[in-house]
Amino acid sequence: MALSNGLRLVRTSFSHEKSISWFPGHMMAGLREMRDQMRTVDLVVETRDARIPLSSINKQFEQIIKGKRRVVVYNKADLAPSAIQAAVRQEMDKRGQHVLFTDTSINQSVRQILTVARDMAKSDPIRYPQLVIMVIGMPNVGKSSLINALRRTGLNRGKAANTGAKPGVTRSLSSKIRVLESPPVYLVDTPGVMIPFIPDPIAAIKVALTGGIKDNIADENVLADYLLFRLNRFAGLDYCSILGIERPTDDINDFLQQLGTRIGALRQGGELDTDKAVQFFLRAFRRGRFGQLCLDDLDERSVEEFFQRSLENAPLSKNQSQKAKRAAQRQRSLERARKRKLL
Q1: What is the pTM of this model?
Q2: Is-contact 16 205, C-beta < 8 A?
Q3: Coil vs helix vs strand at 339
Q4: How far apart, in whole angstroms, are the C-alpha atoms of residue 338 and residue 318?
Q5: SS3 letters for 204-245?
Q6: Which has the least CB within 10 A, 35, 81, 235, 239?
């Protein structure tokens, strides 16, 4: 495969064997709270990231929301190609999932959710004297931003949920937040919950790239290398012009050398600071500088393989459960050590 300037790509696939585990204690507590409060919930809004429409699915939610009406909201749709929407809808329809795409900066986009809630409440006012929606999703898919946008759109009021670019801002279930007066509709925000153990290392990289796993837990150099691999495979994407570097490359070291020199990422003594170059590269992607991109493959075969591998065998095996438990214990120990300034 060659780029438009004649560069021949060395890599036709990306291999990485080590997955990323991040399941701190507040996520386990959040799952328990979701289960406990689910009986008081009328509608579940499961929020996913449109840039990774498959990798942002958390199979644990299937067990929690059984029997509840659900709307799947692919948020950050402004950062993903609109061309993927038909394919995603088709695949999710096959699995009985009603899909909406949202951009929280556009009221009309967010109003789709309010319309579903309003119609549901009006369909049976006796059953729904007030409609309660629980918003769930993986970390950093934009749940809190979505709640603030719903409140802004429904009531013309300001923020009700804290937001941030890093995962883990919401750490517990919120109290009810009103988003419509008539009929009365309330939302409950929840902490972002990661899959205890992501068996596919590439899926874990995608989640980390889009901000779902803290950068100090993921290997940022691996994230940058995978991002370079994907950018080289997007036809017509001239990342050299966007970043102001001299030439495209399939070598992450060459790429970081060029980018670090371009942005002046230097340590004392003039040595190149590749860490700063990596962080600059990842921020550029997360802020949408490379345009609308989707990191998941959405051809029919890839989608079928994903669901067979990740969802249809939703309960974790004993070995996976033990791995997840150990990963959670390691994470709690690391966080305690950091607080004590031992690391």
Answers
A1: 0.84
A2: yes
A3: helix
A4: 30
A5: HHHHHHCCCCCCCCCCHHHHHHHHHHHHHHCCCCCHHHHHCC
A6: 235
